[in-house]
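Aim 2 progress update. The chain analyzed this quarter is reproduced below.
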Amino acid sequence: MKIKWILVIILFILLLWLPGYAQSPSRELKMSIFPCTDAANGFRKFHQLVAYLQQSSGLKISLVFYDDPAGYERALKKGGLDFVIQDPYVYVKLADKYSNANILQALTLDKKTTQSGVVIVRKDSGLKRIMDLKGKTVMFGSKLSSPRWIAARHLFKKNGLQIDRDLRDYFNKECCEDVAFNVLLNVVDAGVVCDHFLQEHGSRQVELGLDAGQLVVIAATDQVPTKIFSGSKYVRDDDMVMITRALMHLDLQNSEHRRILENADLGGFRKASAQDLSQIRELLARMQVN
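Predicted C-alpha cells:
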C-alpha cells in the first residue's frame, strides 16, 4: 500500500514539472502582443485590454513583450507564454506552436478583417508616386509586419522597384509613430505606416508633436489580414474558452469597450475558421518577395 502512495506522489510531482500543466486558478497567465512597439508603448496600448480580460474571466494575466522572434518562439515552445495577439505572418510562421482551438481574428475599427500599409511622404517633398522613390530612403515596419513589410515589398516590386537595388537605403522600425516622425523630420524620404494611422490618432499625434497634416499618402499596399489571437498548446481548455468568450464580447457600441479597443487599435474579434486561416496562409505566400 505504501508503495502505491509513493508512486502516486512521484507521478504528481512529475506532472507539476511539465510545461503548461493545468495548475491552480491563481497561476498568473502570460499574454504577449508580437511584434509590438517598445514595452512602454505596448503597455500603454494594451494594459486596458488585459485589465478587462482579468475582470471578465477572473484569471490573473500579465503582459509580456519580446524584442526578438527567437525569445518569443522559445517562450511558446516551453509553455512560458499562454495567449498571443500576433501579426498574421507570425502566426503562419509559428502555427505548430499554438493550440488549434478557439483561434480569433481581430477586426479593424470599421469591422473589417483586412488592412493595408500606406506609403507616406512630406507634402512639400515633391514625391507623388511610388516610382519617385527610386534613389530615395524609405522606412518600413518590422520585418514581421504583414502590411508594413511583406505587402510593402510586394507593392514596390509590382511597381518595378527592387528595394535592395533601387533605393538609396531603407530601414525597419517597429511602430508607425517612429516611421511618421522620421518622415516628418526629413530623416527619410518616405515611410510605410498602417492605413488607419493618420486618421485614427489625431489627439495622440498632437500630444506627441506630430503634425499629420504635413504628411500625404502616395500609395497603398494590397489588403492583408488583421492580427490573430491564439493560445499556446499548454493552455487549459477552460481558460482558453473564458478568454476567447471575453474577447468576442467586446463591442464598439459599448462606451467602456470602445475605449479599450480604440486604445489598442482594434475593433473587436471574431472566430477564425480553418478556411479563414488557410486563405491567410495562401495570401501571404503570394506576397512573399525573395
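Residues 39-57 form the longest helix (19 residues). The longest strand covers residues 28-34. These observations will guide the mutagenesis experiments scheduled for the next reporting period.
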